[in-house]
Amino acid sequence: KVAQAVRTPSAEQDDAPRSLARRHRAFFGPWRARLAVSSQINRDTRTRSDFLVETRLARKWPHDEVSTTDYYRYAKTDGNVTADVARGNGMWRHTLPNRIFTVYRPAYEWNSAYKIGGVNSDYMLLQQEAGGGVTLVKTKKTTVRAGLSENRFDTWEESGSGHSDTHAESAFSEADVQL
To answer: Does residue 3 sit in helix, strand or coil?
Structure first.
């Protein structure tokens, strides 16, 4: 007689996470991430404290690449806030045939401790860049790209000037080198 394995409901449930992971590995699979946190307090002629958090997340597929970087810093000197800023940027690049690619790069900056002439000038800046280009060099360890893009900048200031927006065209180059 050939023994048959009898599967109980609990055995099927135990395999469910592995099955789910196998089905979604193509999308969620090798992400690269980094988290950095630092804090310091210095006391000499002044008392300074500083707190910093930075995150990075990136993923590559055969024809797409995405990444994001976020940064937050808060600092005080003698009880006065000297830095309260958050910055971030992202990137999505899609590769098309014949060495052509498209790219989208959003970015933001929020600063609530900015001063001009001692007067608070808190602001938020949003930037969007959309463009395309051509891959000039593609080897196993080096990639060089060049392209053109349209940039849009939106700024909100709390000091009374309100919202402003502008746009500009730009040429760019990128170099990825594996060391």
So the answer is: coil
